[in-house]
Amino acid sequence: MGGTSSKLPKDLLSEYQVRLTHVMCLFRAHKIFSELQGGENGPYSSRVSMQKILTLPELKANPFRKRLCHVFSTSDMKDGSLNFEDFLDLLSAFSDTATLEIKSHYAFRIFDFDDDGTLDARDLEKLVNCLTGETDDTRLTAEEMRQLISNILEESDIDKDGTVNLSEFQHVISRSPDFVR
Amino acid sequence: MAQRVSFDFDLVTDVESPADEDGVHDSFSQLIQEQCHDLHDVIEMTPLDPEEESRDDVESLEAPVYQRSDSDGPQQTDHLIGERWSSDTLKVLSSMPSRTIGRSRGAIISQYCNRTMQLRRRRQSRPSIQHFPRSARPSIRGYGVETDAAGFEEEENKRERLVNNLQNLSDSDRVRMLRAMPLSLSEKKELRMLVLNKAEHSVSQNQIPCCSQLKYYIIIALRHGWYSWLSFLSSLQLWQTALKCVGGRFGTGVLSYFIFLRTLLFFNVFMFLVTGLLLVVPQAIAHPDLDQNITVRSTWGLEVLTGAGYFSHSLLYYGYYSNKPLQTGHSCSASSNKTSSSCGLSYNMPLIYFFTIGAAFFITCIILVYTMSKSFGQSFRIDKSKGLLAIKVFSSWDFKVIKKSSVRLQRANISTQLKELVAEVNHQKLKFPVLQRLFRLSIHMLAWIMCLGSTLACVLAVYYFSEYMHGDLLRRAHTNSSDPLLEEASLLAIPVFVSSLNLLLPGFFNVVAWMEEYDSPSVLNYISISRNLLLKVSVLGVLCYHWLGRVATDPQSLGLECWESFVGQELYRFLLMDFIFMLLDTFFGEFLWRVFSQKALKRERKPVFDIARNVLELIYGQTLAWLGVLFSPLLPAVQIIKLLFLFYMKKVSLKMNCQASGKPWRACQMTTIFITLLCFPAFLGAAVCVTYTMWTIKPSASCGPFQGLKNMFQAGKRWFQELAAANPDLHWLPSAHAYLVENPLFLFLSAGIFLIVIYFHSQVVDGQRKIIELLQEQIENEGEDKKFLITRLQHIHERKRRVTPRRVKEASEVHTHTLTHAYTYTHIHTHSHTHTHSLIYTHTHTHTLTHTHTHTHTHTHTHLHTHIHAHTHAHTHTHTHTRALTRAHTLTHSHTHSLM
């Protein structure tokens, strides 16, 4: 077992093949995670439920927080619970050093609300609603929404099959100069 | 064994998670209870979740299709969405490679398998042993259907290959590759372990040696330093929160005004740094022996406004700077950066003055052109689809925002922007009848005539007024008997006159534009910008003529000792007046108008921020500052103070008095346009004026760094001559200078080369655009094909739905055909797929046969028919078929077992 501040098993360190410059970050992540686990020093593979993850201040106000948990969860129960490795995945995908490829991939999966592998109009509607919020003054009217979605599809759906698939998505993203998340 | 059976049915789901298998089992038993009314429902029985199965009943042919909430709207582009697909079509669709890549692990693995292969090839440039996969991104999905566990095997195979490829990569490449894969950590770990096991050197990794630990700590510390430096840099982004706040409340249009203001501020800071460090500081340190016997009067208030009096002999103006080499005594360091040739403690002020101004203009020009080209590149991409909406929706959310209030702000911002975009798109569809258009055209003509006429009147007024004031000054210079206070105040006449014109005429333009009734806010803005620009450019042109043509050519008659300082004072006055009028405008035009309209007119609405006019005022002020740098090196400092004030004032005024524009509009290329305007008329005009002054006008004889020279340009020449005289080896320098700088041929040549380079670039871009068009056309054609195939698939499914259980044979035929179609699209072994399906089919039926006792006869029949059919279709592949059959039998057995 590791140092005094962290109970992270040392052999994991080498297993993760962390860039060793990031070890401190790793320890911090583990600290946050074990706090989420409720102080008990369970095995590192134990899971933390989605409700607990969502209490993180970074995720409290994020409209995509549930999708985040679902996408990064490897749980068999599909309940959005994360174990430590999933948590690390989440953190690394959002770090500044993650490649555009990874970011766009996960962004696509976050936006793909029904997990069918493409962004169809329903996904887009949900996405726009997430972006604008549900209050009346920010929400788009039905007509605006229809217009918006058909325009998005027209712009980004290159092969015109009515949905935006991953490569089309990445195509759009690559043209956006500030895809920072 | 039971597990394998379930794979057999697994047409679409991932093999990765046991949860799916549960789903399969569930649906399976459910199916058996349903007594299989329809054959087809038995075949397609592997949706992702069990609930879907219950919806997929025979009675209600409602497949789990997507329904648009607004299916009435006419859609040209997406026929596919409007239609309802049956669940089997959906299933085939969802197993298309382009879709699986977005969610399945296997597809990702195979994609990266290809990529590592490519990387390896590139690195080693030797032929690979394994054969290269057919398509650039094949999906394991295609194989998933083949035989019972073949999909799984295929994935294993792929994984094996990936591991092989990874193993052949170098260490760093491998790590980078693994890191770049969008897989979960545990899978990456597994892959890495596999690679390591293959390489058989998995030991000795667990121990980190001591010295390298030290190294890591040092690296950590360094990196921490770097990160804190980065965060410091990002905190330097001036006014970030204020800008975000403004953007969230008032949209991108108003935001672009403030961003532009910030850009101007940076330009001025740069200018100020250059002139301050190279001119002002050395001069201030040197204390030239100018006789400072000018009595300082105490009318301070007016002097701040006019910039005359006490200020006229200060560092602010040209006249204060000496022409002698400054004897800086000990501090050679400050001077050595320019006149480094002989560190003879001399700071050649004329030369430095000349080169500082020249270099400052040159660098500003480069920065301007660079920003302009960059923002052009961003707003005018070469492919034809604009994709603005899509980009906005996909990449506008800032995941770093965590505060509740800022999330609300961001939402408001995004919502406003989306509304703007949609409004713009909607606007493009509006059309008017001919008569109305003619009417509108005539109104526009009238408006333009009015605007141009008033601009012309303004220009003439400024011309004659300045002539009158010039005459007044001449008279006063000769009589020399009037009240000094009045004399100073009269200096303010022209600036006040011009500034009030600048204030009043845009209001008139706005009234005219209101009469014209433009319905697109962006068009209104462009029109307003062009009118205001015309006014300001022409007024500035007249003023330049006044300064350079009247004052500079005949300074003696005005009794001016130093006309450069006089022009500098004039520019200072203009700049200050401009600022004061802006303050007044903000107070009266925005604050009082808001109070008036809300209290007296009982209107709920607040006025709307006029972007065009405000931006043009900024550009006007900046032009003045650039013009004045030569005559008054500290003018950028004045401009900086002005801009800082202006930012906070405008922000407060905006929050108090204005509201977000009622018709939301997008400022898609606004920033580009502002920068272009700043570059083209403003900067270029100022640069031309300054160059003209340097090149042709004779500087004052008794003051300033260039006294005694024919023009400012000669400072360089004289310096070269001095150099050559002092050092005989450099005798070629004056002639080289004469050839390179004074001879226009060289200038023309470099400009010509520059133009040629630009031309080639534009040609290359043109070619690329053509290729992009071709490729896009091709993709669209493919899309058409896909659409066609999917519709056919859907037709066949529909036809099959209508058949009764009695005519199962036909149904089976149809089914086989369907699959053929589907996989023709995906280009993966159509024939083998057909086989697979007949196999699954058979299998299914055996099940039904075993477990349900009703309809036994029919089903046996079906069984046979299928056999025959499959045979007829696949006579060339007899082997496969028999094998498939036997396997089907074993599977039947197994399943019977599992159910018992």
Can you give keywords for this protein?
heterodimer, A: 181 residues, 10 helices, globular, B: mainly alpha, two-stranded antiparallel sheet, 71% helix, disordered C terminus
What does this structure look like?
- Chain A has helices at 10-16, 23-36, 50-53, 57-60, 65-72, 84-94, 100-111, 121-132, 142-156, 166-174.
- Chain A is globular and about 45 Å long.
- Helix content of chain A is 53%, strand content 0%.
- Chain A is built from ten helices and no strands.
- In chain A, helix 2 crosses helix 6 and helix 5 crosses helix 7.
- Chain B is mostly helical.
- In chain B, 71% of the residues lie in helices and 0% in strands.
- In chain B, helix 14 (240-286) packs antiparallel against helix 16.
- The longest helix of chain B has 59 residues, at 744-802.
- Chain B is globular.
- Chains A and B meet through helix 1, helix 4, helix 6, helix 7 and helix 8 of A and helix 5, helix 7, helix 11, helix 12 and helix 13 of B.
Topology (SSEs and partners):
The complex is a heterodimer of chains A (181) and B (900).
Chain A: H1 10-16, H2 23-36, H3 50-53, H4 57-60, H5 65-72, H6 84-94, H7 100-111, H8 121-132, H9 142-156, H10 166-174
Chain B: H1 2-9, H2 18-33, H3 39-43, H4 50-55, H5 79-82, H6 87-94, H7 97-100, H8 105-124, H9 140-144, H10 150-168, H11 171-180, H12 185-199, H13 210-235, H14 240-286, H15 300-306, E1 326-327, E2 346-347, H16 349-379, H17 388-395, H18 404-427, H19 434-479, H20 484-491, H21 493-516, H22 521-551, H23 563-599, H24 611-628, H25 635-657, H26 670-696, H27 714-726, H28 732-742, H29 744-802, H30 808-826, H31 830-851, H32 856-873, H33 878-899
Antiparallel strand pairs in B: 1-2
Helix pairs in contact in B: 8-10, 10-12, 14-16, 14-18, 14-24, 14-25, 14-26, 16-26, 17-18, 19-21, 19-22, 21-22, 21-23, 22-24, 23-24, 23-25, 24-26, 27-28, 28-29, 29-30, 30-31, 30-32, 31-32, 31-33
